[in-house]
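Fold these two proteins, one after the other.
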Amino acid sequence: MKVKQHIKKELRFTIRDFNTLFPDDNACLEHLKEQRFPGGVTHCDTCEQERKHYRVAGRPAYACAHCGKMISPMEGTIFHKSSTPLKTWFYAMYLMSSTRCGISAKQIQRETGVTYKTAWRMFRQIRSLLSDGDLQLEGPTVEVDESYFGGVRKGHRGRPMVGDRQKTPVVGIVQRGGMVVAKVVPNVGKKQLLGTIRKHVLPGAVIYTDELGIYKSIPKMTGRNGRPANYKHFAVKHRTHYVKNGHIHTQAVEGLWSLIKRGIGGTTETYSSRVFWRELVSGWRSSSFQ
């Protein structure tokens, strides 16, 4: 029986596609060069103008066609001064981006053949590229929700009680059909929740949330310029239903939490729960995910 593909054909990227596009380090370097210096044309500091650059044989560098000044596409990137082959870096990025349930540094070690220390460094470096603390969602419709990660809740149920340091609150904002912002916050108080919305949601947007009382203040909020933000707010009461009138729901942001938790579950094979969550949150501060 032929299994139906849920991913559009133009969005599929298999391991065969990866090896065809990036057969060796030279292909990876050329791809990186085209991303940073399209057509090999970039500013030459010596000539003080835009110049065509050509590959230097035997070196991961490109030289100015006029004066010979060399530049490297890897300079200023996570690949700079790394002794790890460029294709190994690209393959690690492919693994991390194509695995829905998450992948651990230990798995990267097994797949690429590098040491665990190298795999963990690559894992952290690649994940750091996901951070964009000032990202502003441009869509007209967003969903907002909060969730808690790590440790065991005080009393083993419900939200963290006063003084409970085991759980870490995270605010998620999902632009329907677009990008996502997920931020660690000290608490889920009014200042933190509304401040995050003000920073990342454009004025005039329609905001969907659950029934948390703090969200009732959204229509009265002001924007960054101090003027009324004119947010439109709709809340769904999860005690009675999950979708109201066909469009009032928080299914997208709840799907985000599900994917994140499944992804985290796929990376915890070598750590105790508490140690892993602490390291995750320390690297998750002021992060956003696209």
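Now the second one:
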Amino acid sequence: MRHAYILAKSYRGSKGVNKAAELVIILRSAMAETVIKSAASNRREEVEAEAVRPPLKWAGGKRWQIPYLAEYWTREKHRRLVEPFCGGLAVTLGFLPRRALLNDINPHLINFYTWLKKGLAITEPMRNQRAWYYAQREKFNALLASDKAETAEAAALFYYLNRTGYNGLCRFNSSGLFNVPFGRYKTINYRDDFREFVPVFRDWQFTHGDFDRLSLQDDDFIYADPPYDVPFTQYAKGGFGWEDQQRAAEWLARHKGPVILSNQATPRILKLYKSLGFTLHCIDAPRRMSCTGDRTPAKEVLALRNPE
């Protein structure tokens, strides 16, 4: 505004005062408009960031848990968020942390996220057709067998297979080959441009491997969503059995910062986490997939430790 008054003083003559006042009003209005536009632009960026949805279909996704988890994360959002079983990223994209360490045992999932961070663009056609799907599945498995699993082509095929395959499943056989059958969708909204994820993923680190190899900081906020404690066809080569459930629980119990665990509320899961000093909250989970057609809510547990 100082420049406005300097310009105003340059006016001389009988109408100088009126012109000066008029100029100040004009400049003030212009500055106010700039501020308003800037604020609107910032808010638009925030809204767009809030609207970033998980790019994959993911069986057992936890987006529905966000209202339950928000009260804990809101007061802890200065921390780094760690997901040792990041899956479809529903919770992380719901929180939108500034910093995150996101891990999964599935290397193909992490390869996809790694390429999203670089601005993945898919140029090959994607078709909701049975023959095309199985041809692309064969091509993807050929890449895995030829040490090309970390390429952009493999990431693009992983996305297509995920969107087109049955119920968003991610399943591999004992040889490590993708074996999900063709889905049953009438229409599929594919996307080929993922540039919106570049700024979102900028300060997020993606790793793949066993959870207990993660390099944690004492003040990390951990949200852990391991495979359910139920019979489950292999999500990754090697599976995730009861010994892994126990190992994960003990690993989480050793962490000094806040921890939230999500799992099926089976009797032995409840007993395990209660014995390790976790506070348990049982909630109704929407049942989206069932071989019997049963859609009644399933009981799920949130096990908390070290909340502030």
